[in-house]
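Hello again, I could really use a second opinion on something today. I owe you a coffee for this, so here goes:
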Amino acid sequence: MAWTPRILRGQKVLARCEPDGSLRVEGGRVEIRYRPSDARAYRASVANLHPSGDASILPDAHCVALDDAKADAPAPRAAPSARRARKPARAEAAAASPAPPSTAGEQVLVYADGACSGNPGPAGLGVVIYADGTARELSEYLGPATNNVAELTAILRAAEALVDEPRPVVLKTDSQYAIGVLTKGWKAKANPELIRTTKAALAKLPALSIRYVEGHAGHAGNERADALARAAVSARASSGWRAIGPARGARSERSEPAS
């Protein structure tokens, strides 16, 4: 089997297809992924999948292995990223930051995310760091790169910003690929130098924990990092690190499991 780009409710997704590019339809529905790094699969009605203008046929390995516990979920009526994609890039970049979650003074919470328009294509990253009830964030344009490079570089930027931080650091990413090559010993066919550099930076954080967070699932910090990454891609520009304060009316950080 293979993957091919399609448009679902205004958002570009990857749809299961046969080797000739025709959609693989089962019971009137097609397996889709919102991002190659997502381990969750959805099933969308074939009638809602439209040509994207890109007839690429991508290998099965283009998407990470499916987590069996997350298989065959119905596609959301409107994915958060699809709703945001309709906003002008300027408005998106100015969107209110989520209120810093309640974090103990001895812990630093980090969200890092990457984005890519095409794969490879114009890429960007977003990082949000919460500590002591305050926050700072980064939106950086990387130029042409792959989604995996953007995800890894986001984690690298977070580590560089926190070098020698003595407090426990919890870094959350929705990239299974990044977690695999950085912490699980996955053999990397690409990006070996970036992986080595990122590992070296992470090693300077004496109390680091890297955890997976599901993308586009309502986690405020992850949603903000994603918005920062996509804003960098849209604007083809970087903002640099900036301090942010609690946003009025912002949704509080959704609670997540400890591991």
Summary: The helical segments are 80-85, 89-93, 147-161, 176-183, 192-202, 220-235. The chain has a mean pLDDT of 81. The longest strand covers residues 134-145. Residues 118 and 259 are 32 Å apart (CA to CA).
